[in-house]
Design brief:
This protein has 12 helices and 4 strands. By secondary structure, it is of the alpha+beta class. Strands 1-2-3-4 form a 4-stranded antiparallel beta sheet. Strand 1 and strand 2 form a beta hairpin. The radius of gyration is 20 Å and the shape is globular. It starts with a helix and ends with a helix. InterPro entries: SirB1_N (IPR032698). Belongs to the UPF0162 family.
Length: 278
């Protein structure tokens, strides 16, 4: 059996690198879904990303961003068939990089990771754009000449107006210039884990998936403090009353100065969890 503790230590270390390896972090997430698989899927996925990058033309970083976007769309979207569909939102595999590379289907953010990692290996100026509700990819200079592409739609090049329609369709909010800022690897990884948590939260029988997604999120350098409370609730739900109560008490200490009423409510929940042992 693969060492879960070792994999998580590796995830925590990789997340704290000066320049985190986005592909590796996403592959380690996928490893949590199949802990028996070991290192082979991680190595195979890295080799596949390298192979795909080798199929791109040698354009150079000075090539017009649109040429890079078109080259990626032609290779990944047309020749290889990477894209998404509404049905992909209902599958855990759509958030696992190993499975996205195998099935060539996934959520917008995972397909964008494929686009970014293949493009980066080929020398393209590429970055992720965390639009609310729909992740896309940028080529070129974020605050200069650039183009946006939608990997979920096979790499279709987007105008700013079309990007605004994606945001409005997903959230009802208008597009703001700050939304086009490059997404940092840790931000991308947290969003991937949030998607997994949301998938599992809608399926109470998969609280195991929600728990490991929360626990990986807590290993990131920056994460919402409330994730500690979510982990505590999951521990109690899964029968670890002592562990869950302890987590609740620690969370209550963290928020006590700012939210004393909420902290007291959490302490009462901790006492109730301990009482379930009697």
């Amino acid at each position: 059996m693969y060492d879960t503790t070792g994999r998580r230590a590796r995830f925590a270390e990789a997340a704290r690198e000066t320049r985190p390896d986005l592909a590796l972090l996403c592959l380690l997430i996928a490893g949590e879904a199949d802990p028996e698989a070991g290192e082979e899927p991680v190595d195979a996925a890295q080799i596949e990303l390298d192979r795909l990058a080798g199929l791109l033309p040698a354009l150079g970083r000075q090539a017009h961003p649109r040429r890079w976007a078109e080259a990626l769309a032609e290779l990944l979207g047309e020749r290889c068939g990477f894209h998404g569909s509404p049905a992909d939102y209902r599958r855990l595999e759509s958030s696992l990089l190993t499975e996205v590379l195998r099935r060539r289907r996934g959520l917008p953010i995972l397909l964008s990771v494929v686009w970014m990692e293949v493009a980066r290996r080929a020398g393209a100026p590429v970055y992720g754009v965390a639009l609310p509700g729909h992740f896309v990819v940028g080529f070129g200079e974020p605050y200069g000449q650039h183009v946006l592409a939608d990997p979920f739609d096979g790499g279709r090049i987007l105008s700013e107006e079309e990007a605004g329609l994606l945001v409005a369709g997903a959230t009802g909010a208008p597009l703001a210039p700050a939304m086009f800022s490059p997404a940092e690897p840790a931000e991308i990884v947290l969003r991937v884990l949030n998607n997994i948590r949301a998938w599992a939260a809608a399926r109470p029988e998969r609280s195991d998936v929600q728990l490991w997604a929360v626990e990986l999120s807590l290993l990131l350098p920056s994460h919402p403090a409330r994730l500690r409370y979510e982990r505590a609730e999951l521990l109690v739900e899964r029968g670890d009353f002592v562990g869950g109560a302890h987590e609740m008490e620690e969370y209550a200490e963290v928020i006590d100065a700012l939210e004393p009423t909420v902290a007291e409510t959490v302490r009462r929940q901790a006492r109730a969890a301990r009482a379930m042992l009697n």
